[in-house]
Design brief:
seven-stranded antiparallel beta sheet, Beta-galactosidase, Chain A, domain 5, 17 strands, single chain, mainly beta
Protein backbone atom coordinates (compact mmCIF):
# COMPACT_ATOMS: atom_id res chain seq x y z
CA UNK A 1 0.00 0.00 0.00
CA UNK A 2 1.20 3.49 -0.90
CA UNK A 3 1.47 5.67 2.22
CA UNK A 4 3.07 8.91 1.00
CA UNK A 5 3.70 10.92 -2.16
CA UNK A 6 6.34 13.47 -3.08
CA UNK A 7 5.06 16.61 -4.81
CA UNK A 8 7.53 19.24 -5.93
CA UNK A 9 8.14 22.42 -7.87
CA UNK A 10 11.46 23.98 -8.78
CA UNK A 11 11.52 25.60 -5.32
CA UNK A 12 9.76 23.34 -2.78
CA UNK A 13 9.35 19.67 -1.99
CA UNK A 14 6.24 18.46 -0.12
CA UNK A 15 5.55 14.93 1.10
CA UNK A 16 1.86 14.16 1.67
CA UNK A 17 1.39 11.18 3.96
CA UNK A 18 -1.38 9.18 5.59
CA UNK A 19 -1.54 8.18 9.27
CA UNK A 20 0.50 4.98 8.93
CA UNK A 21 3.72 6.50 10.30
CA UNK A 22 3.98 5.57 13.99
CA UNK A 23 5.54 8.76 15.36
CA UNK A 24 6.01 10.23 18.81
CA UNK A 25 2.25 10.53 19.32
CA UNK A 26 1.29 7.34 17.52
CA UNK A 27 -0.48 7.12 14.17
CA UNK A 28 -1.97 10.60 14.24
CA UNK A 29 0.07 12.68 11.86
CA UNK A 30 -1.50 12.71 8.42
CA UNK A 31 -1.01 15.70 6.15
CA UNK A 32 2.29 17.28 5.10
CA UNK A 33 4.88 14.92 6.52
CA UNK A 34 7.58 17.18 5.16
CA UNK A 35 7.99 20.59 3.56
CA UNK A 36 11.45 21.66 2.43
CA UNK A 37 12.88 24.28 0.11
CA UNK A 38 16.02 24.69 -1.96
CA UNK A 39 16.64 27.70 0.26
CA UNK A 40 16.39 25.80 3.58
CA UNK A 41 17.30 22.14 3.88
CA UNK A 42 15.39 21.39 7.09
CA UNK A 43 11.79 20.18 7.31
CA UNK A 44 9.50 23.07 8.21
CA UNK A 45 7.42 20.65 10.31
CA UNK A 46 8.49 18.42 13.18
CA UNK A 47 10.06 15.28 11.75
CA UNK A 48 7.91 12.92 13.81
CA UNK A 49 4.85 15.14 13.39
CA UNK A 50 3.39 16.93 10.35
CA UNK A 51 1.76 20.13 9.13
CA UNK A 52 -1.67 20.97 7.74
CA UNK A 53 -3.17 18.07 9.69
CA UNK A 54 -6.98 18.15 9.37
CA UNK A 55 -8.71 17.12 12.57
CA UNK A 56 -11.41 15.46 10.45
CA UNK A 57 -9.00 12.68 9.47
CA UNK A 58 -6.45 12.78 12.27
CA UNK A 59 -6.21 9.35 13.89
CA UNK A 60 -8.94 8.06 11.55
CA UNK A 61 -6.87 6.07 9.01
CA UNK A 62 -7.38 8.07 5.79
CA UNK A 63 -6.31 6.55 2.49
CA UNK A 64 -3.81 8.23 0.20
CA UNK A 65 -4.92 8.99 -3.35
CA UNK A 66 -2.43 10.27 -5.91
CA UNK A 67 -4.33 12.52 -8.32
CA UNK A 68 -1.47 13.62 -10.60
CA UNK A 69 2.12 14.89 -10.43
CA UNK A 70 1.11 17.96 -8.43
CA UNK A 71 -1.84 16.80 -6.31
CA UNK A 72 -2.41 14.13 -3.66
CA UNK A 73 -5.45 13.60 -1.45
CA UNK A 74 -6.21 11.97 1.87
CA UNK A 75 -9.65 10.41 1.80
CA UNK A 76 -11.92 8.87 4.39
CA UNK A 77 -15.40 7.37 3.93
CA UNK A 78 -18.05 7.76 6.62
CA UNK A 79 -18.60 4.80 8.92
CA UNK A 80 -20.33 4.07 12.22
CA UNK A 81 -17.35 5.25 14.24
CA UNK A 82 -17.14 8.64 12.51
CA UNK A 83 -20.02 9.26 10.06
CA UNK A 84 -18.24 11.91 7.96
CA UNK A 85 -17.04 11.72 4.36
CA UNK A 86 -13.78 13.67 4.08
CA UNK A 87 -11.43 14.60 1.24
CA UNK A 88 -8.28 16.65 1.90
CA UNK A 89 -6.38 17.71 -1.23
CA UNK A 90 -2.85 19.11 -1.36
CA UNK A 91 -1.62 20.72 -4.59
CA UNK A 92 1.81 22.25 -5.19
CA UNK A 93 2.07 25.17 -7.60
CA UNK A 94 5.16 26.96 -8.87
CA UNK A 95 7.14 28.50 -7.50
CA UNK A 96 6.49 27.92 -3.76
CA UNK A 97 2.81 27.36 -3.06
CA UNK A 98 0.79 24.55 -1.47
CA UNK A 99 -2.95 24.97 -2.08
CA UNK A 100 -5.11 22.92 0.26
CA UNK A 101 -8.83 22.16 0.15
CA UNK A 102 -10.79 20.16 2.70
CA UNK A 103 -14.31 19.01 1.80
CA UNK A 104 -16.54 17.03 4.13
CA UNK A 105 -20.13 15.93 4.67
CA UNK A 106 -21.58 14.91 8.03
CA UNK A 107 -24.06 12.05 7.69
CA UNK A 108 -25.23 12.55 11.26
CA UNK A 109 -24.74 15.32 13.81
CA UNK A 110 -21.21 14.80 15.15
CA UNK A 111 -21.31 17.78 17.51
CA UNK A 112 -21.01 16.85 21.15
CA UNK A 113 -23.89 17.57 23.55
CA UNK A 114 -24.05 21.25 24.47
CA UNK A 115 -22.27 22.40 21.30
CA UNK A 116 -24.22 24.82 19.10
CA UNK A 117 -21.37 25.05 16.57
CA UNK A 118 -19.24 22.69 14.47
CA UNK A 119 -15.45 23.01 14.75
CA UNK A 120 -13.18 22.04 11.84
CA UNK A 121 -9.56 22.34 12.96
CA UNK A 122 -5.99 21.88 11.68
CA UNK A 123 -2.63 21.55 13.43
CA UNK A 124 0.81 22.59 12.16
CA UNK A 125 3.72 21.42 14.31
CA UNK A 126 6.64 23.71 13.50
CA UNK A 127 10.25 22.57 13.50
CA UNK A 128 12.56 24.59 15.76
CA UNK A 129 11.88 28.21 14.75
CA UNK A 130 14.05 30.82 16.42
CA UNK A 131 10.93 33.02 16.64
CA UNK A 132 7.89 30.95 17.74
CA UNK A 133 5.34 33.72 17.23
CA UNK A 134 2.52 34.18 14.75
CA UNK A 135 2.65 37.51 12.89
CA UNK A 136 -0.64 39.11 11.80
CA UNK A 137 -2.42 42.44 11.48
CA UNK A 138 -4.33 43.70 14.51
CA UNK A 139 -5.77 47.17 14.80
CA UNK A 140 -4.00 48.14 11.58
CA UNK A 141 -0.56 47.27 12.98
CA UNK A 142 1.65 44.20 12.86
CA UNK A 143 1.15 42.10 15.96
CA UNK A 144 3.39 39.18 16.97
CA UNK A 145 2.08 36.57 19.38
CA UNK A 146 2.49 33.13 20.87
CA UNK A 147 0.37 32.09 23.82
CA UNK A 148 2.14 32.29 27.21
CA UNK A 149 1.55 28.60 27.91
CA UNK A 150 -0.29 25.67 26.36
CA UNK A 151 -4.03 26.22 26.74
CA UNK A 152 -3.81 29.81 27.95
CA UNK A 153 -5.04 32.62 25.66
CA UNK A 154 -4.59 30.29 22.71
CA UNK A 155 -7.53 31.32 20.52
CA UNK A 156 -7.49 34.47 18.37
CA UNK A 157 -10.76 35.72 16.89
CA UNK A 158 -11.26 38.11 13.95
CA UNK A 159 -11.74 41.82 14.58
CA UNK A 160 -14.45 42.00 11.92
CA UNK A 161 -16.85 39.78 13.92
CA UNK A 162 -18.72 41.23 16.90
CA UNK A 163 -18.14 39.57 20.26
CA UNK A 164 -21.81 38.63 20.53
CA UNK A 165 -21.53 36.75 17.21
CA UNK A 166 -18.63 34.58 18.37
CA UNK A 167 -19.21 31.05 19.61
CA UNK A 168 -19.64 30.51 23.35
CA UNK A 169 -17.64 27.62 24.73
CA UNK A 170 -19.87 25.12 26.58
CA UNK A 171 -17.15 24.35 29.14
CA UNK A 172 -15.21 27.00 31.06
CA UNK A 173 -12.57 25.00 32.93
CA UNK A 174 -9.09 26.51 32.96
CA UNK A 175 -5.70 25.21 31.79
CA UNK A 176 -3.76 27.74 33.88
CA UNK A 177 -3.36 25.30 36.77
CA UNK A 178 -2.53 22.35 34.55
CA UNK A 179 -4.05 20.09 31.91
CA UNK A 180 -7.82 19.54 31.91
CA UNK A 181 -9.66 16.85 29.96
CA UNK A 182 -13.15 18.31 29.56
CA UNK A 183 -12.33 20.81 26.81
CA UNK A 184 -9.71 21.42 24.10
CA UNK A 185 -6.72 23.60 24.86
CA UNK A 186 -7.66 26.24 22.28
CA UNK A 187 -10.85 27.49 23.92
CA UNK A 188 -9.19 30.19 25.99
CA UNK A 189 -9.47 33.44 24.02
CA UNK A 190 -6.72 36.03 23.65
CA UNK A 191 -7.98 39.62 23.92
CA UNK A 192 -6.20 40.75 20.75
CA UNK A 193 -7.90 40.05 17.39
CA UNK A 194 -6.76 39.69 13.78
CA UNK A 195 -7.82 42.06 10.98
CA UNK A 196 -7.25 39.92 7.90
CA UNK A 197 -7.44 36.15 7.24
CA UNK A 198 -3.74 35.37 7.10
CA UNK A 199 -0.74 34.97 9.36
CA UNK A 200 2.91 34.25 8.86
CA UNK A 201 5.82 32.78 10.82
CA UNK A 202 9.58 32.83 10.37
CA UNK A 203 11.85 29.81 9.98
CA UNK A 204 15.44 30.94 9.61
CA UNK A 205 15.69 32.83 6.33
CA UNK A 206 12.25 31.58 5.28
CA UNK A 207 8.70 32.77 5.77
CA UNK A 208 5.63 30.52 5.96
CA UNK A 209 2.39 32.36 5.14
CA UNK A 210 -1.06 30.83 5.56
CA UNK A 211 -3.88 32.60 3.69
CA UNK A 212 -7.48 31.55 4.24
CA UNK A 213 -10.87 31.61 2.56
CA UNK A 214 -14.23 31.88 4.42
CA UNK A 215 -12.98 34.55 6.84
CA UNK A 216 -16.13 34.93 8.94
CA UNK A 217 -15.78 31.46 10.44
CA UNK A 218 -11.99 31.56 10.78
CA UNK A 219 -10.10 31.46 14.09
CA UNK A 220 -6.36 31.17 14.76
CA UNK A 221 -4.96 29.26 17.71
CA UNK A 222 -1.47 28.44 18.89
CA UNK A 223 0.69 26.81 21.52
CA UNK A 224 4.31 27.59 22.50
CA UNK A 225 5.01 23.90 23.21
CA UNK A 226 2.59 21.98 20.96
CA UNK A 227 5.38 20.83 18.63
CA UNK A 228 7.44 19.22 21.38
CA UNK A 229 11.14 19.51 22.11
CA UNK A 230 13.34 21.82 20.05
CA UNK A 231 16.90 21.34 18.88
CA UNK A 232 17.50 24.91 20.08
CA UNK A 233 18.66 24.70 23.68
CA UNK A 234 16.13 26.04 26.16
CA UNK A 235 13.28 26.20 23.63
CA UNK A 236 10.33 24.08 22.54
CA UNK A 237 8.56 23.93 19.19
CA UNK A 238 5.28 25.77 18.69
CA UNK A 239 2.03 24.79 17.01
CA UNK A 240 0.64 27.33 14.54
CA UNK A 241 -2.95 26.13 14.24
CA UNK A 242 -6.31 27.32 12.94
CA UNK A 243 -9.94 26.34 12.60
CA UNK A 244 -13.20 27.25 10.99
CA UNK A 245 -16.25 27.34 13.30
CA UNK A 246 -19.61 26.71 11.63
CA UNK A 247 -22.41 28.40 13.62
CA UNK A 248 -25.64 26.58 14.36
CA UNK A 249 -27.69 28.54 11.84
CA UNK A 250 -25.32 27.42 9.05
CA UNK A 251 -24.80 23.83 10.15
CA UNK A 252 -26.73 21.09 8.38
CA UNK A 253 -26.34 17.32 8.33
CA UNK A 254 -25.92 16.14 4.75
CA UNK A 255 -24.53 19.47 3.52
CA UNK A 256 -21.14 19.48 1.82
CA UNK A 257 -18.69 22.02 3.27
CA UNK A 258 -15.41 23.08 1.72
CA UNK A 259 -12.57 25.14 3.18
CA UNK A 260 -9.54 26.40 1.26
CA UNK A 261 -6.17 27.94 2.04
CA UNK A 262 -2.82 28.68 0.46
CA UNK A 263 0.50 28.01 2.19
CA UNK A 264 3.44 30.07 0.90
CA UNK A 265 6.97 28.90 1.75
CA UNK A 266 9.71 31.15 0.39
CA UNK A 267 12.71 33.21 1.45
CA UNK A 268 11.60 36.14 3.59
CA UNK A 269 11.82 39.48 1.79
CA UNK A 270 9.75 41.93 3.82
CA UNK A 271 6.38 42.40 5.47
CA UNK A 272 5.26 44.27 2.36
CA UNK A 273 6.09 41.17 0.33
CA UNK A 274 3.93 39.10 2.70
CA UNK A 275 1.05 41.46 1.98
CA UNK A 276 1.64 41.10 -1.76
CA UNK A 277 1.39 37.30 -1.41
CA UNK A 278 -1.85 37.74 0.52
CA UNK A 279 -3.34 39.96 -2.18
CA UNK A 280 -2.14 37.60 -4.92
CA UNK A 281 -3.73 34.55 -3.29
CA UNK A 282 -7.04 36.33 -2.79
CA UNK A 283 -7.11 37.36 -6.44
CA UNK A 284 -5.88 34.07 -7.96
CA UNK A 285 -8.00 31.79 -5.79
CA UNK A 286 -11.06 34.06 -5.58
CA UNK A 287 -11.04 33.96 -1.80
CA UNK A 288 -13.80 35.75 0.04
CA UNK A 289 -12.84 39.20 1.33
CA UNK A 290 -13.36 40.38 4.89
CA UNK A 291 -15.81 43.14 5.75
CA UNK A 292 -13.75 46.33 5.56
CA UNK A 293 -10.87 44.57 3.78
CA UNK A 294 -10.11 47.78 1.92
CA UNK A 295 -9.20 49.68 5.08
CA UNK A 296 -5.68 50.85 4.62
CA UNK A 297 -2.89 50.24 7.05
CA UNK A 298 0.87 50.27 7.30
CA UNK A 299 2.20 51.20 10.71
CA UNK A 300 -0.80 53.46 11.19
CA UNK A 301 -1.57 53.78 7.48
CA UNK A 302 -3.11 51.36 5.04
CA UNK A 303 -1.42 47.93 4.85
CA UNK A 304 -4.09 46.11 2.88
CA UNK A 305 -5.58 47.74 -0.20
Amino acid sequence: MHHCELLQTDEIQAVVGDASRNGVGGQNYCGLWSLTSKHRRFNAFGNSFAGLIPGEIRGKSPALEVVDDTTAALVRTADEVYPVDVRAEYTVRAPYYVDHVLAFTDHSDVRQPGFNFREVSWCCYINCPEDPRLHFLSGGEWYRYISPQHGVEANIAPSYIRDDELESWPVTSDWREGRVDDRPFHWDRHDQTFDEPFYFGRLGNMVMILIFDTPKWLRFFCSPTGGGASLIQGQECPAWDFEWVIPEEDYQVGRRYSFSLRLVYKPFVSEDDVLEEYRRAQAELCFERTPGHNTDAGHGENLVR
